[in-house]
Amino acid sequence: MSSSHRTRGIRQALIGATCLTTALVALPALAQTAPAPQGSEADSVEEIVVTGYRKSLADATNAKRESVAFTDSVFAEDIGKFPDLNIAESLNRIPGVQLTREINGEGLNVTIRGLGTNFTKILLNGSQIAVASSGRTDSQNQNREVDLDLFPTELFTRLDVHKTPTAGMVEGGVAGVVNMRSARPFDYKGDGQLIYSLQAGKNNQADDISPRGSLIASKTWETPIGDFGLLGGVAIARVKSTTTGFESVGWSNANMTCTGCNATGGNNFNWASTVPAGITSNGLTPGQAVDNALLAALNPGTTLQQLSDAQLPRLGRDSWSSGERDRDSYVLSAEWRPNDQLNVYFDTLYSKGSRSFERIDMNWVVRNSNFMVPVGVKVNGEGVVTEGTFLNSQFFLEYRPYEEDVEVLNLNPGFTWRPNDWIKLDGQVNWSRSVFFREAPTVLFNTPLNSGLNVTYANGGGDYPSIKANKDLNDPALGWVWAGGRVNVQAEKRVTQTKGAHFDLTLGDDKGTNFKFGVAYDDVGRTITALDNSARWQAFTCGGGGVTPQSPVPAPVPACDGRAGSAIAQANLASYIKPGPLGFITLDKDRFFTDSNYQAFLDSAPFSAAAATGAASGLIREKTTGAYVEVNGATQLLDRDLRFNLGARYYSTDQTIEGPQTVNGVLSFLSRTTNYDGLLPSFNLAWNLREDLIVRASASRTVTRPNPSAMLPGTTFADPSAQQANQGNPNLQPYTSNNFDIGGEWYTGGAGYIGVALFRKELTGFTVNGTNTIPFSQLGVPFDQLTNLQQQAINNRGGPDAATVTVQQQVNADGVLTILGQEVTWVQPLDFLLDGAGFTANATHVEQNARGNGAPAQAVGISPWTYNVTGYYEKHGATVRLSYVWNDAQISSGPGQNGIPVATINTDARGQWDLSASYQFDKLPTQPRVSLDVINITEEAQRSPFQWDSAAYTYYQPGRQIMLGIRGKF
Questions:
Q1: 27 pLDDT above the threshold of 70
Q2: Number of independent structural domains in the chain
Q3: How far apart are CA 759 and CA 605, in angstroms?
């Protein structure tokens, strides 16, 4: 049986078992119509509901106080009720944690303490988890990030962020480790509980309501063979989303010839060399030479040097993305406690997401153009164009809908056995599989050139430029043409799989002095397979036809011009165009795809080396064995309690990298196997200077494995004699970091405390472009795949074993990135002012310094300053929380963007207000709690500038989301 059939069978069994468990557990709960007597266990559970948020804060404070290492936690208020609607949002409340958001505003990935998302290790119930999805819109996610949007908060009880490691933790997170703990039946003892939750949400930019709901049932039994528990849960969301905005694909300047011109770099387009036909305004005559003298006359007040460096968006475009993000998630957990010594559990989670979106944008063509005449151009002090008119402009519609399906299944059995007071054995096995499929077609066609289309451009300090055409771009009859257009049919499939086993033996007092020993095995793999049938579909659709979905690819591929024989000929193109939702046209997708036989070309799409996102096809698999020893102790220093943890973890990784290469038209696959190992020491201590004052210190070494995309072993030759080659480097060494932390907390009572943490990381393992000379025989390229000229050249140099090739690839450098940071946290109940009120606040500051080769001047995607503030009131059944999260401006890329040496892509500072309010009706059946949640109250946008603040790279407006809900329990 294939693995896909196994996954499907397990999935169907899981869904059926979950439904059966829910029904089984619900029956006794529904049968209990009489209220529980006063003082019963049910009352204690209800007390958790009444003081849910405050209890979750108190649990987090107690967990921090009891920890020896630097750890922060978020607890569920009650079963099925987390403080936030999204796991990433909950983690974002923790000091030192930053969030990557999807363009619709939803939290997706997290970073910890000044390093990127790939340096954060995500665990599910203590075991490795991998999700096959491709990350944020327009990203490739070829690294080690885990998208969190498949994990609904309703099915989790606790999140832990370990900022300093212990030897017993799974290695791989230089920045830190996040562990997501799913619900288990013995978390909620009692006769049984059935919890329901329903919400209806509305985004102010979307037309439809977004429903979501959950149902969770939990019950424990006392049986002759011990205590037994079952928990089953389901969480479903149907989220409608519309995002409007602006995109530029970067900025650049014209290529001009004059003294002092082109000082910035870029030079991505040219002005027209002669006045185009049809232009007679501004005293111009068609055919007139557009020389420097004319450019100076047309743009008074702007020098030729300023005009040559004047920055314009390469493809300035208004964008519209609208669709639905569906998610169905199931959890099933069983626990058996035959006696006080043994606890056996089996956790299962299955989650599936489907995304269906229309995405359209109207592009003003600047990049690679040579047909516009600039008039009245003005620039600001940054060299960015603020106004101007551009004669003989051109636009194209880019219609690129996409469909995505992703699923993840995780199985996680384990046990804890305590045969006596000084021995404890923990064991755990894990297996997961995730599959992702994305189809991403593109249809592109243009306005005709020399048609009198002009652009009035204004960039006077708004969020993004105004680009106004003198003709109606929402008119299907404007004269749209195929010439210069294209169509693409592309898809991408990803599969990730993890499996492992972990065993930990504790000798001694579990709460005091003990020795821990452990062994672990983890096998993690990912395959990316790109599919592309664009050449055939383009030939069939607008290149004259004459092909089938599986016929030989035409050579050369005919241009997309709608010639006779095309399925969508130029004469019929307008009939497939209709007015769009944002002031410019869109495509009649169903008719166009049917008449161009899109589905058949998609179904037969062959393998491709790269996907539509730019992600490279390939495979990576890492098998890691590890072993560790820990000493945990508690002693006295100056008559005060001192707790410590000291240990070391050894790991050895066998890594297999496989990637495609095409040499002279022949496709083959290269596979490389490497091994590396390391020792990771760690030390943590916590000293109670007073009963309410704890001082902490930590020193450790952590590791993150290198970026798989830089290791794919495909080879390309840069010269006809096969002397120069470019190749991935499967021998890249991991990133390692030496970490030092010091801090402490003053516990002010109840959930309250004030905490300070100082940290330092010294990170190595960065890469630079390097060269290495090796014999051709070690290159991995079959000799018979070379051209005759290349074979002859190699034979002339002594044959494959003697002839050398200079290989350029990424190699490890000696650079060191030092990260210094400070975290401050204040959690304070204000019962002395108003019973039930309080606040939480934290701030994080990060500084980065680089030395040596390869280390970036600053890690990308990190805000130097972040802070979070939440005020709350919870009393008499009412709960109100108002939260604010601030992230300072970021650098989001390295320099050299679009050929401009100094240019980086940045991200503007952003703050977001969220409100959560609810009221519980204790006297009604199921004690329903009615809730109102408002996300992004002030409709804060996501904006990224291109080097200069006035040059918007992207701008997305996710809008405000309002949700009304009800939640109760039987």
A1: no
A2: 1
A3: 50
